[in-house]
Amino acid sequence: MTKIVLVAACALVDADGRILLAQRPEGKSMAGLWEFPGGKVEQGERPEETLIRELEEELGIEVNEACLAPLTFASHSYEDFHLLMPLFICRRWNGTPLGKEGQALKWVRAVRLRDYPMPAADEPLIPHLLDAV
Ligand SMILES: Nc1nc2c([nH]c(=O)n2[C@H]2C[C@H](O)[C@@H](COP(=O)(O)OP(=O)(O)OP(=O)(O)O)O2)c(=O)[nH]1
Question: Which cofactor does it need (predicted)?
Fold first, then answer.
């Protein structure tokens, strides 16, 4: 039976319309690929709560739930699980994003997103970002 993994992710967009990508660190699955910050939705959490928690843990920024807007979602079968990943967009936060877990960060224009190798689930999200920013 397919295991569905629910992950909440966020496109942080700065004042110049650039999007923040984070590089998955060595030792994790899909190491080296560039992803939207976020993580697995834990038991009892809403996706918005997951993001507020993950953005603080991973990047050290504070996000208000009212600033998280649903954009689209990914539904993608990997070999050992099916990923269901709502993607939110956020243009306002407090603090400056830093790779608190040692991950590299990059602000990328939407038209340049394809220059950064991403997990397979993310590719269909790119046209939505091109429309949004
Ligand atoms: N945050 C995030 N995760 C993504 C994206 N695209 C994508 O396929 N994923 C996958 C990678 C992971 O399998 C999962 C997120 O898990 P995670 O980052 O919270 O936890 P993890 O690295 O410990 O996961 P894992 O090693 O157990 O696979 O979603 C994305 O754009 N952002």
Answer: Mg(2+)
